[in-house]
Amino acid sequence: MPDIALSVYQAVFTFAVAAIALLASPGPATLALAASGAAYGMRRSTRFFVGITLGLVIAMALVASGLYVVLHSFPMLATALTVISIVYIVWLAYQIATAPPIRDEQSVITPGWGAGFVLGVANIKAYAAFAALLGSFTLGAAPAWEQGAKALICLLVCVVFDVLWLFAGSRMRKLFIHPTWSRRLNVSFAILMVATVAWSITLTQ
């Protein structure tokens, strides 16, 4: 029994490390959160964060239930969904790249939960990560608990590290008031978002 418990703990630890590596690394959602935190602050980005989290839950449910695999068994539908996701994320990256420096905080329209939700659902990197984590790892738990435990760990990793990305962005807030630094940082965030989408597409091939 102790050996079995130890192997389960080791499997959970290995899975958690893999989840952090895949889900906490730079991606469209994490970079968008950092940009939002820098531009609007943590408090005003809360709804955006909640929306992204809800969207990621939907993405994870699609993967865990097998619907993600079913959808990708129809090439035309899978391609259409991928194109829609790419277009939305590229559009969001453009919005970030062209955002003006902060001048009047009260007049700035912050991204809401709807924008975050769509980003979470359209996050190609998240689907690739969830597919790898939920389909390739075994924790050694009872079948009835296995998938739920992995989903819970993934959700905790997403929430904790998304908050950290949001906080890290908020620490750069003063730079977004300066016109030159604001433009450079916005463009950098946008380029990184597009680059992570391109990288994520290679993972799904």
Automatic annotation (TrEMBL):
Cited InterPro entries: LeuE-type (IPR001123)
Protein name: LysE family translocator
Cell compartments where the protein resides: Cell membrane
Chief subcellular location: membrane
Membrane-topology descriptor: Multi-pass membrane protein
Species for this entry: Pseudomonas veronii
Entry's transmembrane regions: 12-36, 48-70, 76-94, 115-137, 149-167, 187-204
Keyword terms, alphabetized: Cell membrane, Membrane, Transmembrane, Transmembrane helix
Pfam families listed in its UniProt record: LysE
Top-rank lineage group of the source organism: Bacteria
Membrane found in the keyword field: yes
